[in-house]
Amino acid sequence: MIGYAEAPRAWGLTRGMARVMGVNLTDAVVEGWLTRTELAGMVDHCLRCGHVPACTDFLAHEVKAVSLPAFCDNKPGIEALASHP
Question: What share of the chain is helix, strand, coil (3-state, %, to 5)?
Answer without folding.
Answer: 60, 0, 40
